[in-house]
Amino acid sequence: MASDRDATWPFRWDLLLRYRYIEIIALWEGRLTTRHLCETFGIGRQQASKDINSYRRDVGPGNLQYDKHLKGYVPAPAFTPRVTAGLADEYLQLAARNNELANVFESLSLGLGNIEVLELPVRDVQAATLRPILQAARRQRRIDVDYVSVNNPDREGRIIVPHTLVYTGLRWHVRAWCEKNAGYRDFVLSRFRGEPDMMDSSPHGAGADDAWQERVQLRLCPDPRLSPAQQAVVAADYGMSDGELAIETRGCLVPYVLQRLQLDPDREPAAPAAQQVVIANPDAMRCWLFRG
Prior knowledge:
Elements: H1 13-29, H2 34-41, H3 45-59, E1 64-67, E2 72-75, H4 88-95, H5 127-139, E3 141-147, E4 156-167, E5 172-178, E6 183-188, E7 192-201, H6 210-213, E8 215-222, H7 228-237, E9 245-250, H8 254-261, H9 272-275, E10 277-279, H10 282-286
């Protein structure tokens, strides 16, 4: 595992990036092809094939096996991460195209000094749980899952049709059609239990999720209780134009955006200097607060 290895790796850093990418894609998506490497790193198919073969020979012998049916490499039953930590967060950060590469490739020394990044708790997600969810989302398939929540801590069976993974800045959830509720809901990834069972296809994909498809514009402005000079400072901080900042998001994601900004359209901050910004169009936001 990456955390157990010495900081000095026996590979060039560009190769190490590709080896780690190979492990992450194979482990969490369950299928790796040369196309993955070609499209991500801008290399030819011959080089991609060479990288996969050298990984299998020199880095993780026995980790990958070729599946003729899937036409790609799949993780062997005894797969053991060699250049990654084997954490779901590595794949999820990669999937989100997070620019903070250190969150994914933590052992690389990029020479960036005088920078400190807050370390937030990583919520545990098992490969056996995440992989079927990703596959079902890509194929628009139904899956039978066990799920727990704070309100219902006992395992509860659900049949869902996932379509998109969402990162709120604090946790990951999957947007999915829920047959029990006959509607689209958000399910926190770390609250699934066991391994989902893949089922048949479903008509309930992202295209039928109205709250997902609808684009909403959240408008922010400086708190009007601030002095004109203070409002000018806040407007410059947020890069506002004509005293407003427009943030576009999906309707069902409005609650998460407001949580990140620590804004509540139904509550005015006690002190204007504490929040500094307010929602300029609160009525348009309220209708999304308690939708799934």
